[in-house]
Amino acid sequence: NAGVTQTPKFRVLKTGQSMTLLCAQDMNHEYMYWYRQDPGMGLRLIHYSVGEGTTAKGEVPDGYNVSRLKKQNFLLGLESAAPSQTSVYFCASSYTLSGGETQYFGPGTRLLVL
Amino acid sequence: GEDVEQSLFLSVREGDSSVINCTYTDSSSTYLYWYKQEPGAGLQLLTYIFSNMDMKQDQRLTVLLNKKDKHLSLRIADTQTGDSAIYFCAERGGSGNTGKLIFGQGTTLQVKP
Asked: Smallest CA–CA separation between B106 and chain A, in Å?
């Protein structure tokens, strides 16, 4: 049981390049989330998904796209990277919405856009 | 809109108690959470409190909730060097059942030996 995994761990892009970040979870969770973490700003939600085949915008969706073709995977795409997208990206997943259910976080992907 | 605020830094000596504070704006929050982030790692849930409670204790951790003032605190008793990390307060926000969390900026806890 690996939990939530993210690939790659670190990436350097040039402005205008594209890339896809992969998140995978093996806990059969319905809900998955992509956050970005910037110094002094906590985590901000980019996009999320409440089930296979569904996605929705979060707080800061501009410049990103997502897909949830399989329940266990949630992909985050940058079509044309910009320096403002330099950040640490975290994926999370959760099972139910009842009680104090928690989101399980991946280890993060560090992205530098030059 | 929903907002969560925390002080950015706290320094304590090993063995002392640490108190990390958080304020939030969404009065309809049902759950409030404390997460811990160690260097280079993702966030790990420490504890949570339901909004109809005013206190929750879990070993060295005590969570206090003042719903009237929308103030949440995390007390760590007998703080150890291994407690050095960033602590995030979060509330369950957003409309509908999406499980979205609104995070504070994080408080860096430095524990001096």
From this structure: 6
Question: Sign of torsion, CA B45 B49 B54 B60?
Answer: negative
Cα–Cα distances in Å, from B8 out to A59, B5, B22, B52, B110?
Answer: 22, 9, 10, 27, 11
pLDDT tens digits along B75-113? 999 999 999 999 999 988 655 556 678 899 999 999 999
- DSSP per residue over B1-57, as a string? ---EEE-SEEEEETTS-EEEEEEE--TT--EEEEEEE-TTS-EEEEEEEETT-SEEE
Q: What is d(CA A44, CA B99) in angstroms, rounded to the nearest whole number?
A: 14
Residues B25 and B63: their CA atoms lie apart, in Å, by: 18
Q: Which of B22, B32, B34, B43 to mutate to test the interface with A (most CBs of A within 10 A)?
A: B43
- In this complex, is the C-beta atom of A100 within 8 Å of any C-beta atom belonging to chain B? yes
